[in-house]
């Protein structure tokens, strides 16, 4: 529960990136709904995947209230203090690391949950673990529709960001562990994966980098399996849609910068 | 059952607004599907929200047949008689009032149903009551996709119309009553809310007005809670997307007028 | 199971039509996901319609692996051999015929499955049989979104292709049989419908025709029931969206031709 709430806190810069400040002024209801989709997107998607009620998680009133409080403070706090606080780099690094801790636990829980429902459904385990780990990214296109925005080029399936990719690989690893194809215990795997994710994400956040640690391995595997050209793999992933001059990640970053500037100007 | 069918009848001008006459000529199947989404959108959405089958309501063959008959008469009746009949102002006012009676009952039933599934899930009760009350409006963007139309600016989450807002407030009231935070009995609340909704809607329909009775309270609450500028609240709600010269409600109205003219011309 | 796998094989030209070769190079994960949606779209939609888990079918690991193998061979086989093999006309005709055999069995199974869940839900039986038969076509707009493409004019609800229409009529026939309104046994109906579908589709594929065998009956029924102008029915179905110079089917065909040329060029 305490980790969950910290995870919500660390979701803040995501809110900034995507739920724009204008929506929060014009339509608080739409802004709150988007915020909830961002906080609980992974639970919603996993519930849909397993055939449950998509709003099942909303029965935990205290979690919803906590997330609503963070949403309220973030958008409507006087002098924009709360946002400045969580966007302060050292605080942000701690939140980012804790978020990856939560992400790993979510992937493991998703795989375990799916393995209870489908004992030998390895594909289902991977899918549920994957949406549990990267639900926020996968739900973002739907969330854009709610705000009347439609940018298909920021599609997390076509252009997977680092956390989305890592969730997929993590879900595959945890499924292999669940199927006893990996000679490690679950707790060891959780520990190792958490350490890898947290350190990667902290380094990437501190250096404002979007390069993926998987780039080298991926370019070799894609070359062998799918005949992709070697080396320039990272380029190939992002550049073909030439109409979009920058990668979606940059677009998000710019958006976020724009929102920050607007918020900063407002606060002055 | 008799009220339901009347509610379907009063949905007629909605059909006119949105399911265009061309679709009914080109593709009767698509037109019928849109009509069914409009009639039973609230049941479909509520079933999805509670994790059931979205077409669960379609097991009531008589309701579907009745709605299909209304759809058929509305679009294919010789001389356009049926449409002229239900669009005649006195008849329309009665249907509009009866529709609000049904809406209130639906909200109360939705909240009650959700409270059985989730005893303390107050957020779930509000959400289910809300989609039960305003399912038609919420499903309209999806229905547009079926007809190959995509107008994100007519988004009922971003620009809530009066019935959508009233459904949200109603769902909150009924949830508070269900949680025993309101010192009134359920029947009193249903009576009062029905009276308020029916009279507001009849007055608004008679005066062709789209102003919301909540405007004053909302502008004050939004000012206090969300720092929105006072007074010009209604302007602020609709004008910021400057690219769209008129509010979505007006657009719908114009559409409806256009459809009426086309139908009238055809009938001559 | 063997028929299923052949059905997957015959889905190949569909892949070609729609999952473009570029996506398979840029993002193998998105390409695989699209391929799975195409293979198992009918199961996914039917599970959603009956309120189950949309990924329920993914528990059959061997089916998924087989479909994945077909996908891999189709897109990444050296010299493009596999695609040339299945696109060779005699092979294609056999696959097309077998696919219609599978389609009829799917419609009958869908209607039967729905009749178990809802004993008198005739509308539900028709809907489930319909999505079982033409799930691929209905899911294609959603699948386009995954690839970042959005062409609402290729909407299978508005412009039903022959297999989609035949699935609807088949679902209605099987529902009438299930309700004992047709004086034929189920096996006779399956045999007759399979024969009709397979022969129609083989003739249409061999002659590269998109005319529907239903055109004459449809134009008379639409004239009587919906007042559509007689004779030019087929024109009326496709021409009104004048902005789109060719019917969606032609667009798909062109796309497919383009993809074939690109693949051929690559293979040289």
TrEMBL record, chains A, B, C:
Alphabetized UniProt keyword annotations: Ion channel, Ion transport, Membrane, Nucleus, Potassium, Potassium channel, Potassium transport, Sarcoplasmic reticulum, Transmembrane, Transmembrane helix, Transport
The keyword Transmembrane helix appears for this protein: yes
Q: What is this protein called?
A: Trimeric intracellular cation channel type A
GO MF: identical protein binding; potassium channel activity
Q: How does the record say this protein sits in the membrane?
A: Multi-pass membrane protein
Q: Which PANTHER family does UniProt cross-reference here?
A: TRIMERIC INTRACELLULAR CATION CHANNEL, TRIMERIC INTRACELLULAR CATION CHANNEL TYPE A
Q: What is its main location?
A: nucleus
Function noted in UniProt: Intracellular monovalent cation channel required for maintenance of rapid intracellular calcium release. Acts as a potassium counter-ion channel that functions in synchronization with calcium release from intracellular stores. Opened by a change of voltage within the sarcoplasmic reticulum lumen.
Similarity-based family:
Belongs to the TMEM38 family.
* Subunit-structure text: Homotrimer; conformation seems to be controled by binding to diacylglycerol (DAG).
The opening ranks of the lineage are: Eukaryota, Metazoa, Chordata, Craniata, Vertebrata
Q: Please give the catalytic activity noted in the UniProt record.
A: K(+)(in) = K(+)(out)
Q: Where is the composition biased (Basic and acidic residues)?
A: 250-259
Location(s) in or outside the cell? Nucleus membrane; Sarcoplasmic reticulum membrane
Renumbered residue ranges of the record's region Disordered: 232-268
The UniProt transmembrane annotation reads 30-50, 57-75, 122-142
Q: Which GO terms describe its cellular component?
A: nuclear membrane; sarcoplasmic reticulum membrane
Q: Do the record's keywords include Transmembrane helix? A: yes
């Amino acid at each position: 529960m305490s980790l969950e709430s910290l995870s919500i806190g660390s979701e803040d810069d995501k809110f900034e990136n995507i739920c724009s400040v204008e929506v929060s002024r014009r339509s608080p209801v739409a802004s709150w709904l988007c915020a909830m989709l961002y906080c609980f997107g992974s639970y919603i998607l996993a519930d849909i995947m397993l055939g449950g009620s998509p709003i099942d998680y909303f029965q935990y009133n205290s979690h919803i209230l906590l997330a609503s409080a963070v949403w309220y403070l973030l958008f409507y706090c006087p002098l924009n203090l709360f946002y400045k606080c969580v966007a302060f780099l050292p605080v942000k690094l701690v939140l980012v690391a804790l978020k990856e801790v939560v992400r790993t636990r979510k992937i493991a829980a998703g795989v375990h949950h799916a393995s209870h429902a489908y004992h030998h459904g390895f594909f289902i385990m991977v899918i549920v673990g994957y949406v549990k780990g990267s639900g926020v990214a996968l739900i973002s296109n739907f969330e854009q529709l709610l705000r009347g925005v439609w940018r298909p080029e920021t599609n997390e399936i076509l252009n997977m960001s680092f956390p989305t990719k890592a969730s997929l690989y993590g879900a595959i690893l945890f499924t292999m562990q669940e199927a006893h194809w990996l000679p490690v215990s679950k707790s060891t795997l959780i520990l190792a994966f958490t350490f890898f994710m947290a350190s990667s994400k902290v380094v990437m956040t501190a250096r404002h980098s979007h390069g993926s640690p998987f780039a080298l391995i991926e370019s070799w595997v894609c070359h062998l399996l799918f005949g992709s050209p070697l080396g320039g793999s990272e380029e190939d992933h992002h550049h073909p849609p030439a109409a979009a001059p920058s990668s979606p990640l940059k677009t998000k970053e710019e958006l976020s910068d724009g929102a920050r500037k607007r918020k900063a100007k407002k606060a002055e």
